[in-house]
Amino acid sequence: MAKVKYRLNDPRLAPRRTRLEIPGWAGKREPRANGSREQVWHCVPLFGRRAITGSNCFTPTTNELHVSTRDGRVGPGGRLGPPPDGGVQWPPFPNFGDGFYTYQILLDLKVEKGMAVRTEPHPRFYTDSTDTVPIAVPALLRNWWPMMFFFAYSRRRAEGRTHIFRPNEPFAQIIVIPEEASFELEKMDEEESAERELQARRIYNSRPTLSEGTNDLLDR
Fold first, then answer.
1. CA 161/CA 156 separation, integer angstroms
2. Which one of 13, 14, 100, 159 has the fewest CB atoms closer than 10 angstroms to its CB?
3. Taking every pair of C-alpha atoms in the chain, what is the biggest distance, in angstroms?
4. Is the pLDDT of residue 1 over 90?
5. Cα–Cα distance between 204 and 60 in angstroms, integer?
6. How many Å apart are CA 13 and CA 90, to the nearest integer?
7. Could you tell me the pLDDT band of residue 216, with boundaries at 50, 70 and 90?
8. Residue predicted with more confidence, 146 or 216
């Protein structure tokens, strides 16, 4: 089994494997059945399985932190409280260019040779109806990079928008992928196309059987 090792300056930064929170950001605890309202985790291949392939990074603070856009500028808010120990910048949200800000942390993630850590928005961003979940900018950290100094976030340009970082709430997700995307794009030949079409039709006709395991995600 592959391992991801970590080093940090605050135990609250310790990453944890992503879990579907049902009820919670992943939807209601409503099994997939006739008459049920569709939940995002009902779609196993597009969201259900994908959402649990990474690890969470959690807000390592005691108070709720806000980042808002006022007069076209990004600024911190909320009850910031005293700066934490360890020498991190406080407030931890300096601007990064015109359209971004950063969250200053000290976290070291070491993966095996040939692999890399990719940062991305937490899956709850895609189910959020409050428009407050931070949008982590994708980044690729190779195994030789010794420290993650910050996460970059895209700020919404609309005036008055606020991103909220709550204690013990995930603010980003990390996944482990090969550091080099070594593949080429090639069009299928007629035989391959026919084979894939046949597979698609078989899957379509087997939907009732394939959906039987959907509710297993309730226990993930």
1. 7
2. 159
3. 66
4. no
5. 45
6. 16
7. low
8. 146
Rounded to 5°, angle at Cα 95 from 93 and 97: 150
Rounded Cα distance, 177 and 96, in Å: 26
- How is the beta sheet containing 55-58 ordered, strand by strand? 16-17, 55-58, 170-178, 115-120, 139-142
75-110 per-position pLDDT tens digit: 777 677 777 766 667 788 888 777 788 888 888 999
- Provide, rounded to the nearest whole percent, the portion of the chain with pLDDT above 90: 29
| Bridge partners for 16 per DSSP | 56
Phi, psi at 56, each rounded to 5°: -90, 150
For 207: left if phi > 0, alpha if psi spans -120 to 50, otherwise beta; the answer is alpha
Tokens representing 150? 């910050």
The string of pLDDT tens digits covering residues 26-83 is: 888 887 777 777 877 777 766 767 777 889 999 888 888 888 877 767 777 767 777 7
Judge contact between 168 and 60, C-beta under 8 A.
no
Neighbour-count burial for 113-136, b at 16+ CB within 10 Å, e otherwise: eebbbbbbbbbbbebeeeeebbbb
